[in-house]
Amino acid sequence: MTAMKKIFYLMSVCALAFISCQKEEMAGNDPFEGNYTYEFVAYQQPEAKATIGDKVDGKWPVLWAKGDQMGVYKADGTFVGVATLNEASAGLNKGDFTVSSDVELATGDALYFSYPYVENAAISTGMIAAKQTVGTTGVGANAVAYAEVEYNPENTQFVLTHTNAYIKFNVKSEEFAGYNLTGVTLWADGAELSGEVTVNDKLTVTKAGDYVKSTLATPVTVSGSEAQSVWVTALPGDLSGKTVYAIVHMTGAEGTEHATETVTLPVKFNKAGALVSGSVTEISLPSLTKSLAPAWYEPIETRYIAAYGDGWCYGPENTILFSAKNAAETVELKARGNFMEVREPKYVQILYATDQTGKTTGYVKFDGTDSHNGTAFIEHEIGNDYSVSVAIASMYNATANGQFSAMLVKDKDKEVIWGINLWACFNPLKTVKYDNGDILTWNLGTGNDIKTYNDWKSHGCYFQWGRPWGFPWSTTVKTYGHVYAATSNQVDLAKSASTPWTMYSYNGEPYDWYWGDGAKEDRTGDLDDLWGNPTASGDGVKSIYDPCPQGYRVASPAILKEVEDGIDAAINSETGVITSAEGAATEFNTSGSIYYLSHKGATWGFAGGFQNSSGKNGRLSTNKTDAAVYWSNAISGNQARAMWIRKKSTDGVYSIERLTGRSRAVGATVRCMVDTEDR
Questions:
Q1: What is 7-47 written as a DSSP string?
Q2: Which of 91-100, 181-190, 394-403, 596-605 has the lowest mean pLDDT?
């Protein structure tokens, strides 16, 4: 068959009507008359480049962009070819397209055009993505449009029908002037704003989502006088009667005092109307101020928002440090981060309180009252400022130098939404200088170093990599309110946050407690940035999931490498035996029945580790003599970067084996380093 080349003329929708709604209200109307039979739509793809131009005579023109393409099909689904925009039509509302095809066409044949073109796309299906990247005027990859027309070999003309609605958010703020505007999320709880769609006489949505997040490809500077625009593409629907928010995303500008700030500002709509296909709804938000957020939500966070911006937490730190008996600390519990995942905090309750000897007692006070009623830990209602005064009133074992306990945070329905570590460390924290930062001299969760204390309790608590909650060493399935459980295929961030007492083990790949929302074969992937360092090296930053108290963060891999390299220097090259000679970069020592390493004034106890693949009570080793296992804040492939120095014995002679990666489901100790940003 002889290939033919035919010029098609396309006129995009040139009259997108809208209602421009001020402040929190929104509405839209349908610019089209009559009924349409929807034959198919196109997949959302980055190849779509069309933009929406400036309003002219109350209309919004859709403008073609260089490189735009459409798919062309016959009525029976036969693929005709790819229609490519002629360069002279770029920036215009009407566009000339060229299509090359060897498919025979007769005058009057029904042709179907889909925009944007997607190779091997199924006719009649498409997608409005929940996460979109746009320019300040672009619909870009998020348009879903189609047309049906009779083929005319002389001049085939048609108008695209847009199945989706367009929303233009106008953003300005005096309070946040100079910040970077990075995007806007439209969230209507229970609505269908995104998802996979099938169009066949009517629009059918599957895998629906109740939000659409639009991120600017290039952030723009917020102004107090001139509004900046963010376009959002969503499924049509009536939002009347629903709780609707526009969530504005901003970051502090580099070189300013706000450089570390991430702003997530939810603005609630007073009322909402309809989003209509083929319409533009323009929404001018009120001048943004922090006061627009609910009282229980803190919109400004200086720590890194982990889970690649989708994470959330409660309070400015996950571990509260108590430096003196009966010294009350005010614990603020406002939600932060992903607003769509948080709820108003209303109650706190002690999960466990122990000096790690295995005995539990109600030794914590909330707002001056005992947290334990003699039988159980009580649920204590927090104040209107969303904070609670917490004090360590007594210690069960007066000889203990440190205690580690946990406090649950609950919503109005008394469901658990978060956990807070309480670290009673009545000895002043000490730091020593390493080449790559200042490091604490003992572990998170204890009150002294192993050399001074000469007891395994100075190892502190154990943490699964990426989670902020500590677990005591235990030989039982349930201790201090903790449960050790096998990983299911539904352990995501929400389940992790609602079960801070559960240590999730693993059984084979992916060797992680986090499984996202899918089974093993379609798991959603690793969250490599949970502790602020999604690389195999580097220094990283403090994240919202970091377990260290304010002013500290999980040690970087560079810190651990200093200890490891010091061990190498202390090994006899001929015998492989570690020397404890004074002056060695890292010394191997014993304190009673406890083994430890000493490097530049800080001791690193042989603290073992929890939860290997053998089951819920699996141990990597004992917590006294077998191995020094410490997390860094970084990843190592699908594992996490750890210092794992294991003692080996051959004929009674001890040598050292080094390993640098461990399953993220393992429970290992944490050493905190100084956070230079004091977060």
A1: EEEEE----B-EEEEETT---------S-----------TT
A2: 394-403
Domain of 210, in residue numbers: 166-301
- Which residue, 217, 232, 180, 215, is CA-closest to 52? 232
Amino acid at 428: P
Query: Has residue 211 got a pLDDT over 80?
Result: yes
Q: Are 350 and 404 in contact (CB under 8 A)?
A: no
Q: Could you tell me if residue 82 is inside a domain?
A: yes
In this predicted structure, the answer to whether residue 610 has a pLDDT above a threshold of 50 is yes
Question: Same domain, yes or no, for 284 and 171?
Answer: yes
Letter for the amino acid at 506? Y
41 and 148 part of one domain: yes
Which of 618, 613, 608, 621 has its CA nearest to residue 639?
A: 613
Task: Evaluate whether residue 265 is within a structural domain.
Answer: yes
> Which amino acid is it at 554?
V
Is residue 571 situated within a structural domain? no
User: Closest Cα to residue 89, out of 53, 118, 56, 64?
Assistant: 64
Same domain, yes or no: 12 and 158: yes
DSSP tag of 323: -
Last residue of a domain, one of 259, 275, 301: 301
Q: ω before 116 within 30° of 0 (cis)?
A: yes
**Distance (Å, rounded) from C-alpha 601 to C-alpha 422?**
26
Q: Is 43 found in the same domain as 184?
A: no
Q: Domain tally for the chain?
A: 2
Q: What is the pLDDT of residue 517?
A: 59
| pLDDT for res 51 | 75
